[in-house]
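Checklist before submission:
- one chain only
- standard amino acids only
- sequence pasted in full

Submission:
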Amino acid sequence: MSKQELPVIKTPETVLEWLSPSDICREMQIPLATFYTWRSKGIGPHAYKVGRHVRVSRADLEDWLELRSDPKWHRAEG
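Returned file contents:
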């Protein structure tokens, strides 16, 4: 059975990339169970149900991460 992938839509204004929960967990180096726990508690990134598949847009993931960024870890500018 081949892996079903959603299309990547590229326009001059935006690049939309769809990520699976496994993709996100691999990038963030977290267990898959953590993603689904966040999802069940309503605290994870905005996700879309496409048939039986859960997908998160790259933009939604980046926005979600930005909202959770810890300012004490940012370098002081200047």
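Reviewer check: The longest strand covers residues 53-57.
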